[in-house]
Every structure is written in C-alpha cells, then in structure tokens.
Design a protein that fits this description.
Layout (H helix, E strand, L loop, with lengths): L3 H14 L16 E6 L2 H4 L3 H14 L6 E6 L11 E4 L3 E3 L7 H10 L22
Parallel strand pairs: 1-2
Antiparallel strand pairs: 1-3, 3-4
Bound molecules: FE2/S2 (inorganic) cluster.
Length: 134
C-alpha cells in the first residue's frame, strides 16, 4: 500500500463486503442475501466446524443457493464452550452446539423456509436491555 487513496479504496471495498452484517442491512439485488459465519477457531474446529462448513457449501451448491448464501470462515467468537458457532446475517441468528447433521435442517428450515431452528439458537438475553446478546 503506497497511498491514502489505496487505503480508502481498500476500506470502501471491505465496507461493501461486510455491509450485510450492519444493524440496518438490507439485501441488495445481485449480492448474497445471507452471510453464514462459521467459526473456525480451535474449539469449534475440534468439534467439527470444518465439516459443518464443507457440508453447508456442498448442500448450498447442490441446491443452487451458493450465489444467494455466502458461507464465511471466521475466527473465534469467544464462545468456545457453546461451539461450534454459526451466525447468520442479516437475520442476527446465532446458532450454538451445531453438529454436521444439523446442516440440512438449517438450510431447509431457515435459509429456504425463513424460520430459524429454535432448538439451536443461542438465547442469551441482556438483563438490562432485554435484547439478545450477539
Ligand atoms: S473457537 Fe469457536 S467460539 Fe471459540
């Protein structure tokens, strides 16, 4: 990087890339409608998060949904005891203790059917705001 202009361009490209994860995000035509963040930290990896990601990608491809739903490998969310963690934006759904055998249900019920899989949702509620901690 050699100039402020390059840095600004890099920043603008990154901001566009993660815009779907902003609080007021709306799906943009031609762009993925969902970002699925799969934790690849040490704890989640030891609990099969790599296999979860592979199965998610394979099933999305075979269903022709890979252009609409983007699976993204992330670092540790800091919630290792609840892993593997899978977060879905802009829905703000945070799944915990996900297993590879849950992938089909998440895709069919949530990504296609629009109904999050309640049994996997982390439901930590902030006592002050009564909002979900994400
Ligand atoms: S390793 Fe996944 S939350 Fe820490």
């Amino acid at each position: 990087m050699k100039s402020w202009n390059e840095l600004r361009q890099l920043r603008e490209a990154a901001a566009k890339e993660i815009a779907l994860r902003n609080p007021d995000a709306q799906a943009v035509p031609g762009e993925p409608r969902l970002h699925v963040l799969v934790c690849a930290g040490t704890g989640c990896t030891s609990s099969s998060s790599q296999l979860i990601m592979e199965q998610m990608n394979e099933q999305l491809c075979s269903r022709g949904l890979d252009q609409q739903i983007r699976v993204i490998k992330t670092g540790c969310f800091g919630l290792c005891q609840k892993g593997p963690i899978v977060a879905v934006y802009p829905d703000k759904i945070f799944y915990c203790h996900v297993k590879p055998e849950d992938v089909t249900e998440i895709i069919e019920q949530h990504f296609i059917g629009g109904q999050p899989v309640k049994r996997l949702e982390m439901n930590d509620i902030d006592e002050l705001t009564q909002e979900k901690n994400l």
